[in-house]
Design a protein that fits this description.
Blueprint (H helix, E strand, L loop, with lengths): L3 E5 L5 H11 L3 E8 L7 H15 L3 H9 L3 E6 L1 H4 L11 H20 L3 E3 L12 H8 L5 E3 L7 H11 L2 H4 L19 H10 L3 H9 L3 E4 L1
Parallel strand pairs: 1-2, 1-4, 2-3, 4-5
Antiparallel strand pairs: 3-6
Length: 221
């Protein structure tokens, strides 16, 4: 199976491995990076660009697949202002779920432009709080795009081994910044009604996604 997808790329270890796997499977991938500047520094975006350029410049089957199927335009969407809305006492424990739901809602808008059917992520079951079984369900219902999660059942050691073989591990390594605003004790089981109520209280998920998407930048790879 192959098709067109929006690829959520963070600059971490997992997402470039997921991108490489789906490129090899023949998927056309349009990368999207959700920037948390100025809460964080520019490192995440810089790593994302470096990782995608590395895949494009590789020799062999992965590089060939990237040059054929990876879009040369990286969409960068600022999300820090919206994410800050989910740091209140009444919604902070669900922060990471709201974050991923926002990313997926933004991916939907990009997907409409390119006729995508799927959204690709490096999510791994149970690896961190937003990736428990219950929370993954709460995330994926935020978009009509079908989820592509090629690393879902892999452990971190396996993913890091794959990244090392790809040559992306050294680029990806470094402090994780996606949890800059996150809670110390995050929710591990999502409640759909509570999530939607919290999002409506700060303006609505679709409004936030549209506002963020209207500020996108394009980085040429």
């Amino acid at each position: 199976m192959s098709g067109i997808c929006v690829g959520l790329v963070s600059g971490g270890i997992d997402s470039p491995v997921a991108v490489a796997r789906m490129l090899m499977a023949g998927w056309k991938i349009y990368p999207l990076h959700a920037s948390q500047e100025p809460v964080t520094g520019p490192a995440a975006e810089e790593k994302t660009v470096a990782l995608l350029r590395h895949l494009l410049n590789m020799e062999g089957p992965v590089g060939d697949a990237a040059r054929e199927n990876l879009s040369r335009e990286l969409i960068v969407v600022p999300v820090a202002e919206s994410l800050a809305l989910f740091t209140e006492k009444w919604n902070h424990s669900e922060y990471f779920i709201h974050m991923k739901r926002l990313f997926n809602a933004i991916a939907t808008l990009r997907g409409e432009q390119i006729d995508a059917t799927h959204v690709l992520s490096g999510e791994n079951l149970g690896q961190v709080s937003s990736q428990t079984l219950g929370n993954l369900g709460g995330v994926e219902i935020a978009t009509p795009l079908l989820p592509l999660r090629p690393l879902l059942a892999m452990d971190k050691v396996t993913i890091m081994t794959m990244a090392r073989k790809l040559g992306t591990l050294e680029i990806s390594e470094g402090p994780e910044v996606c949890d800059a605003l996150g809670p110390s004790k995050p929710t591990t089981v999502a409640n759909k009604e509570w999530l939607e109520s919290s999002e409506e209280r700060v303006g609505g998920l679709q409004h936030l996604a549209s506002s963020n998407f209207s500020q996108l930048r394009i980085v040429n790879l």
